[in-house]
Amino acid sequence: ERLNDIVGSAYYVAPEVLHRSYGTEADMWSIGVIAYILLCGSRPFWARTESGIFRAVLKADPSFDEAPWPSLSPEAKDFVKRLLNKDARKRMTAAQAL
């Protein structure tokens, strides 16, 4: 089932939610945001306003260059990168994440 309402907290919203056509893939994006925060202590997308956050989600790529990312395992980085893939069709599924 495809949904079309913009819902959820700005920091965790998937790009396809902002385009108003999304399914369960959007939940995997949110898990990617949570994993990013848990691993490095900062948000992958940040701005002072909600609209700025939305723009960052649509246009920016999260940084994996600054500490602590270089010291984390390649598997951890790959896990988060695959969850934060802007293309929902290529994003890691729940089954793949397990």
From TrEMBL:
Lineage top rank: taxon: Eukaryota
Keyword DNA repair recorded: no
Keywords: ATP-binding, Kinase, Nucleotide-binding, Serine/threonine-protein kinase, Transferase
Pfam families: Pkinase (PF00069)
Residue ranges of every copy of the Protein kinase domain listed in the record: 1-98
SMART domains: S_TKc
GO molecular function: ATP binding; protein serine/threonine kinase activity
InterPro entries referenced in this protein's UniProt entry, alphabetically: CDPK_Ser/Thr_kinases (IPR050205), Kinase-like_dom_sf (IPR011009), Prot_kinase_dom (IPR000719)
Gene3D superfamilies attached to this UniProt entry: Transferase(Phosphotransferase) domain 1
Protein name: Protein kinase domain-containing protein
